[in-house]
Design a protein that fits this description.
The complex is a heterodimer.
Chain A lengths: L18 H11 L1 H13 L8 H19 L6 H15 L5 H15 L1 H4 L4 H27 L6 H29 L6
Chain B lengths: L4 H28 L1 H40 L1 H36 L8 E10 L7 E5 L11 E3 L4 E8 L3 E6 L6 E6 L5 E5 L7 E3 L12 E4 L11 E9 L2 E6 L8 E6 L30 H4 L1
Antiparallel strand pairs in B: 1-2, 1-12, 2-5, 3-4, 3-12, 4-5, 6-7, 6-9, 7-8, 9-10, 10-11
Classes of the chains: A mainly alpha, B alpha+beta.
Organism (chain B): Komagataeibacter nataicola
Keywords (chain B): Cell shape, Membrane, Transmembrane, Transmembrane helix
InterPro entries (chain B): Cell/Rod_1, Cell/Rod_MreC_2, MreC, MreC_beta-barrel_core
């Protein structure tokens, strides 16, 4: 027989508990992780999109940057690490370079988040651009060092520009996801 | 375990630096032990190969339909061109038949030992793993077939690349345009030996050609048999000068859209006889000019 629990003193304040709620909450919280995971998977498939190779780091970096700045609880360092290993396995580049780039972007966003979360969108965009330039330069240096010869520079410039350009789109997607998917548990 | 809040905060701050250190460790590990990373990647690619094939299928159908539509538009012009080509080809057929006859007669007179027919495996390209650093494709293969590292991949028109990693159901083929690809080639008209070096662009460069016998624009480039796993005479492409003093090879194979590849196994096709004083080659990466090779007399 179901036991009777008295109604709470202030109804609506306490979150609903129970298995259904916890599953719902868990799925909503893992949306950023799952998004990056599947974006990496889909962009590694042979879609023959122009600039597909450069699009993958662009989308990954922008997404990690945004979630690390605004909701670091849903993009913890360990999740970034797992995603970095996943991206490295799927991308056939020098091992560990993507992983290091993602962790650096995450770290920069995390350390500056009290400032970055309050600034104007355009300033945030600019900051992301600067971070991207630095990280891609590091990637180029590492690739050259690991390949023991100078690697062509232009694809890396293209990667940076693509990341910079796709940032507003991902920002809109982030705001929408945060407002209507992640943070909407009570109205669902 | 009860832990004080301060301790937990300090621990939380240490996670990211620790992970960055681990990432540096992964980079070093990838450099020190390439085999481990490659095995991991090939296993993942093996798992995903059917899914990649599923993605590639509708694209191929779409390309086929659009190609058909274009063909229908150009039918008239195509017919005229084909008729002209057909007459010229008929002439060449007669020439080829006469030459084949003559060749057979000469070989019969010379007690010619025929080459072993190489075995080959065909596979569909499921994914272009070309990135910022490499030019390579992933080939989906039947698990029962034996493809070995060092196999030679050809499409209908010419040399495509060499197999560098082999998984259970897939193999990775490093294209001749990759920056780490170096192949010994022969230039057919000038009879010069040279090295074809990829540089991640669509046109691999020709280097180390003799300075008194420079490559001629438009001449055919074929492989020469200086390395054991690659026989002489496979078509590679033709010479083109980007600017004076910079000859490149225009590959005969369509490297932008590789669909189906045949992987030939030429390994051990010529086994040098055991002789006293012969130093056995180290396994893998052994190169040695073979004096008994069949085409030596034609190109050398």
């Amino acid at each position: 027989m179901k036991t009777f629990t008295p109604p709470p003193i202030r109804p609506g304040i306490h979150p609903r508990s129970g298995l259904g709620y916890r599953i719902d909450h868990g799925v909503r919280s893992s949306v950023p992780f799952l998004f990056v995971f599947f974006a990496t998977l889909v962009l590694s498939a042979p879609l023959n999109l122009p600039g597909q190779v450069e699009l993958m780091p662009a989308i990954i970096m922008a997404t990690i940057f945004l979630w690390s700045v605004f909701v670091p609880a849903l993009m913890p360092s360990l999740a970034v690490f797992v995603l970095g290993i996943w991206a490295d396995i799927l991308s056939f580049g020098p091992a560990g370079v993507m992983l290091l780039m993602m962790l650096i972007v995450h770290g920069v966003a995390l350390s500056g988040r009290y400032t970055l979360a309050r600034v104007n969108f355009f300033v945030l965009w600019l900051v992301f651009g600067v971070v991207m330039v630095g990280v891609t330069a590091l990637q180029w240096v590492l690739c050259c060092a690991l390949a023991l010869h100078i690697v062509e520079f232009l694809p890396f410039v293209f990667e940076t520009v693509l990341a910079f350009g796709s940032f507003p789109v991902l920002y809109v997607g982030f705001v929408w996801t945060y407002r209507f998917v992640v943070n909407n548990a009570d109205r669902a | 375990m009860p832990v004080s809040i301060q301790f937990r905060q300090a621990l939380g701050k240490l996670v990211l630096p620790a992970l960055i250190l681990v990432a540096c460790g992964v980079i070093l590990l990838g450099k020190a032990d390439r085999g481990l990373i490659e095995k991991l990647r090939m296993n993942t690619a093996d798992l995903l190969a059917p899914a990649y094939g599923l993605v590639a299928w509708p694209q191929e159908k779409l390309r086929w339909v659009s190609g058909n539509l274009q063909d229908i538009r150009n039918l008239e012009a195509e017919n005229i061109r084909l008729r002209a080509e057909n007459t010229s080809l008929r002439h060449w057929y007669d020439v080829a038949a006469a030459l084949a006859d003559e060749n057979a007669t000469l070989k019969a007179n010379l007690h010619w030992i025929p080459d072993n027919a190489p075995t080959f495996v065909s596979g569909r390209v499921v994914r272009d793993t070309s990135g910022l650093y490499a030019r390579a494709v992933l080939l989906s293969l039947n698990p029962d077939t034996a493809v070995r590292k060092g196999g030679i991949a050809l499409d209908g028109a010419g040399l495509v690349g060499r197999v560098t990693e082999v998984g259970r159901r897939s193999a990775r083929v490093l294209l001749i345009t990759d920056s780490s690809s170096r192949l010994p080639v022969t230039l057919e008209s000038s009879h010069a030996a040279a090295i074809m070096a990829g540089d991640n662009s669509a046109l691999p460069r020709i280097i180390f050609y003799p300075q008194d016998n420079v490559p001629i624009e438009g001449e055919r480039v074929v492989t020469n048999g200086e390395i054991e796993s690659l026989p002489a005479g496979l078509p590679v492409g033709h010479v083109h000068y980007l600017r004076p003093g910079q000859p490149v090879v225009v590959p005969a194979a369509d490297l932008d859209h590789v669909d189906m590849l045949r992987v030939f196994d030429y390994e051990d096709s010529v086994v040098p006889p055991d002789a006293p004083g012969r130093v056995p080659l180290p396994s893998g990466g052994g190169t040695m000019p073979l004096p008994t090779h069949s085409d030596q007399g034609l190109h050398g």
